[in-house]
Amino acid sequence: MLTSDLFDDGIKPAGGSYPLQLKDADVEYLPGFVDHDLAAQWFRALMQKGAVAWRQDSIMMYGRKVRIPRLNAWYGEPGLDYTYSGIPMRPEPWSELLAEIRGRVERAAGHRFTSALINLYRDHTDSVAWHADDEPELGPEPVIASLSLGASREFQMRHRNHRSNGLAIHKIMLEPGSLLVMRGATQKNWLHQVPKRGAAAVTGPRINITFRRIVEA
Ligand SMILES: O=C(O)CCC(=O)C(=O)O
Ligand SMILES: [Mn+2]
To answer: Could you tell me the domains of the chain?
Structure first.
């Protein structure tokens, strides 16, 4: 039996599902994973004071401590610690809403997740730089399901060898209520980022939740 059969409840996202045509990658975009009303409801609930355990971490860059340009929070099963960009994270326990969202994401992706990294891009100057979700805790071919809420932001992907093989940077606007599912060799072969933008290009704050599965070592 396919893993997806375990979750198949016959409900398909209304907006359909589109594979991105990327060499050496497996990426699927579900623009209407949830409708705009539910996406707005989740966004408002998560933006309430105290709803998410936001923190602003610092990383070392060229020998100096620099604050990362976004807030984040790590949720997951107790005991599943995780290191992100060299930042050790101890998971917060799932809130009722995050547990509900996780269940829906699992059914759409056909995959179980233990953990979620939540990012808050407060405005157009917040961003995440080129990286892959390839921490050893995630195993060799991780499935990453990325839910977007709030303002749309441009998500970019580039092949690790894009200069030598002439592949263009792939750009996609991640809309509120959309789910982007990356699988297989995607993290091994591609990097992704959410770049800073001009004020006019971003309508407000955005929350992104990437669901991940930590595999026991
Ligand atoms: O905000 C996004 O769409 C991507 C976030 C991301 O890449 C990450 O948290 O690892
Ligand atoms: Mn990432």
So the answer is: 3-212 (2.60.120.590)
pLDDT tens by residue, 192-207: 999 999 999 999 999 9
Phi, psi values for residue 170, rounded to 5° = -90, 130
Q: Which ligand is nearest to the CA of 84?
A: 1
> Ligand 1: residues within 6 Å at CB?
117, 119, 128, 133, 146, 155, 174, 192, 194, 208, 210
- Dihedral of CA 178/92/213/65: which sign? positive
Mutate to test the pocket of ligand 1, among 133, 138, 146 (most ligand atoms within 8 A of CB): 146
Instruction: Check residue 88 and give its pLDDT.
Output: 78
- 145, 166, 170: which is closest to 155 by C-alpha? 170
Reported as a single tens digit per residue, the pLDDT across 155-199 is 999 999 988 788 899 999 999 999 999 999 999 999 999 999 999
Distance from Cα 175 to the centre of ligand 2, integer Å = 17
Shortest-distance ligand to the CA of residue 209: 1
**pTM score:** 0.92
Distance, CA of 150 to CA of 184 (rounded, Å):
28
User: Closest Cα to atom 1, ligand 1: which residue?
Assistant: 208
Q: Report the DSSP beta bridge partners of residue 172.
A: 155
